[in-house]
Design a protein that fits this description.
By secondary structure, this protein is α/β, with parallel strands linked by helices. It has a domain of 77 residues: Ribosomal Protein L15, Chain: K, domain 2. The protein is 17% helix and 12% strand. The chain is built from four helices and six strands, in the order αβαβαβββαβ. A three-stranded parallel sheet has the order 1-3-5. Strands 2-4-6 form a three-stranded parallel sheet. The radius of gyration is 31 Å and the shape is extended. The protein starts with 55 loop residues before the first helix and ends in an 18-residue tail after the last strand.
Length: 168
């Protein structure tokens, strides 16, 4: 096989149509875009426009609420932690915190914190220091002889600067 002899398989590619190259080309003048107007041009911005009628997005009521202060926790199960301990990626002698879980590859990143879920079972005594844990997860860790310490996340207040007045 020679690199200069490589070619696509017969019939697998089509030549690009050159538009706007005269009436005889079959795609001249309007280039297949119809006639004049907004749609014949680039940058058409009529998405959701209903010919002057109130669009459906404005006719329907607003629903729901998005809490901008909500924390985005990464969840980790007891079974995943037990798997990491069995694979010797986590050291049970020291306190297992969020940084240790990320370093061991149990979770990819910690986002706003890591929350422990009670799915699966844990057999090893572990001391965990996490942002959150379910009641069942806490009970399972304590039953195995370990402990769960919760980190309190503090939100820094937003300090807004007062606008400078133009009067001197």
């Amino acid at each position: 096989m020679k690199l200069n002899a490589l070619a696509p398989q017969e019939g697998s590619t089509k030549k690009r149509m050159r538009v706007g190259r005269g009436i005889g080309s079959g795609k001249g003048k309007t280039s297949g875009r119809g006639v004049k107007g907004q749609k014949a041009r680039t940058g058409v911005s009529i998405q959701g426009f209903e010919g002057g009628q109130t669009p459906i997005t404005r006719r329907l009521p607003k629903v729901g609420f998005k809490n901008v202060f909500a924390k985005n926790f990464v969840t980790v199960s007891l079974a995943r932690i037990q798997d990491a301990i069995d694979a010797k990626r986590l050291d049970t002698k020291s306190v297992i915190d969020e940084v240790a879980l990320v370093a061991a590859g149990v979770v990819r990143r910690k986002k706003d914190g890591i929350r422990l879920l009670g799915t699966g079972e844990i057999k090893t005594k572990v001391n965990l220091k996490l942002s959150g844990a379910t009641a069942s997860a806490k009970a399972a860790v304590e039953k195995a002889g370990g402990s769960v310490e919760l980190i309190v996340i503090t939100v820094k207040p937003v300090v807004r600067k007062k606008p400078k007045s133009n009067q001197g």
